[in-house]
Design goal:
about 40% helix, globular
Length: about 250
């Protein structure tokens, strides 16, 4: 799939925790450092899409230190940022990665790329119990795949701020307009509602920073099974996560 590319979105201007993606997270590496290293292993064209805000110059510098191309676009219209980044890099099919997911599952990305390559879907991702798209959960384990022409069609069909901030919501929310397909998420987490590995707040950052170090010490190549096993052995951390889930509704 020569027209397939990965677009990793990142910015420093998060409302709940500014600069979370560039702060030291594990062994002096930031979340963005860790994600770029992981995604580069897929050996698929990769672009970091950030904003034209001068505060994101640091993100650009970090990406270039990893020899990753950068695209700069709108801060608030993330849908347009993705469309322009894809066009500039000749991507017709896009794997979308968000920089607030330090526990992104590598096996899950590989599965998504393989399945999307064999599908005619406009949008393709994982699904949890209750037919819930993974992007609307607190897990933070998975990416999503989308076609450029579907993004362009969404841009034409809606001017609502919500859909221009969240890129794919309009597409998977309108399965009569788009070909939307899902595959079931890992059975270990399919029905669970007590795990939060996406990172939005200072509380998330502290919990996950400690967790990342602890799990890495046991197995540096950890995935979902190792994470779930560790959490089930540490119910006190699950309680902290449940509190953050309540405070941060999806």
């Amino acid at each position: 799939m020569t027209d397939l590319g990965i677009i990793l979105q990142a910015r420093t201007g998060s409302t709940r925790m500014p600069e979370k993606v560039i702060l030291p997270f594990y062994q002096e590496q930031s979340i963005l450092d860790l994600l770029l290293e992981k995604v580069k292993k897929l050996q698929i064209p990769l672009v970091l899409a950030t904003t034209i805000n001068p505060s994101d110059d640091r993100i650009c510098n970090l990406a270039r230190n990893h020899n990753v191309s950068v695209f700069r676009g709108s801060e608030n219209d993330v849908l347009d940022r993705f469309i322009q980044a894809a066009k500039q890099n000749n991507f017709r099919k896009i794997i979308r990665v968000c920089a607030d997911n330090p526990f992104l599952d590598f096996a899950g990305i590989q599965t998504l790329i393989t399945e999307f390559g064999q599908s005619d879907a406009d949008y393709f991702s994982f699904q949890l119990a209750g037919n819930k798209p993974s992007i609307l959960t607190h897990f933070g384990f998975w990416t999503e795949a989308v076609r450029l022409d579907a993004l362009e069609e969404a841009q034409k069909l809606t001017s609502e701020k919500l859909y221009h901030e969240h890129v794919t919501n309009f597409i998977y929310g309108n399965p009569t307009l788009f070909n939307v397909q899902f595959i079931p998420a890992d059975q270990l987490v399919y029905s669970r509602t007590d795990i939060r590995m996406t990172l939005d707040t200072p509380e998330d950052f502290e919990i996950q920073r400690q967790l990342y170090a602890a799990i890495s010490a046991e197995n540096p190549n950890f995935g979902i099974p190792e994470i779930v096993s560790w959490l089930d052995r540490h119910p006190e951390i699950l309680e902290l996560m449940k509190a953050e889930i309540k405070r941060n509704k999806k």
